[in-house]
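Let us work through a complete example step by step.
Step 1: write down the sequence.
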Amino acid sequence: MPRSQETIDLLLTRRSAKVLTMTAPGPSDEELETILRAGARVPDHGKLAPWRFILFKGEARAKFGEELARIYAATQPGATEDQIAFEANRLSRAPVVVAVISRVTPGIKIPEWEQLLSSGAVCQNMLVAATALGYGAQWLTEWYAFDAEVNKVLGLGENEKVAGYLYFGSESVPKDERPRPELSDITSDWKPKG
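Step 2: predict the structure and record it as tokens.
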């Protein structure tokens, strides 16, 4: 198996970009397909593909934003016009947004936990792929990832949830580094009792 120091370096330095600083251009259709294909190359016990993708490009971002603003205004009666406008523009902050939908099949031999973890792996693979292609990427799950009314607008089924909204675009500012845990604080050797 060939070694790839470039891949290791990418994994050790990958950092999410901030959606608020993303600009155009975003991934082309061909690049987006590469990102989606990378997302689908995750561990998937039982070959269930317990996830799917909803794409927001072009005008769809603003139309979905109108729905977010409507729902936010209805559930937050004290919301200001600025807050409602922020929600309306939420997906327009990046050129491309992908909602990764976790879809669990209950009552089968594959544990639901494994199916959920597979969706998380999809999100991470997509972030790494976008970074490798030279784009900024951020995985967000804010109120609209957990709202039942938003889920209806998305057309989610009974056993579906939003694993995350992945934002992709060009970076307009350098990424800042954040503190990472010391490996010695989070790593231990298992030792048998007795």
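Step 3: interpret the result. DSSP finds seven helices and five strands in the chain.
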